[in-house]
Amino acid sequence: MARTGRPKAELILSGEERAALEGWVRRRSTPQAWALRCRIILACAEGASNKDVAARLGSTPHAVGRWRARFVEHRIAGLGDMPRPGGPRTVTDEQVAALVSRTLESTPKNATHWSTRSMAKELGLSQSTVSRIWRAFGLQPHRSESFKLSTDPYFVDKVHDVVGLYLDPPERALVFCVDEKSQIQALDRSQPVLPMMPGVPQRTTHDYVRAGTTTLFAALEVATGKVIGSLHRRHRAEEFKKFLIKLDREVPDGLEVHLVLDNYATHKTPAIKTWLLAHPRFHLHFTPTGSSWLNLVERWFAELTNKQIRRGVHKTVQALEQDIRTWIAAWNTDPKPYIWTKTADEILERLASYLNRIPDSED
Question: Among 62, 66, 213, 214, which one has the highest count of C-beta atoms within 10 angstroms of its own C-beta?
Answer without folding.
Answer: 214
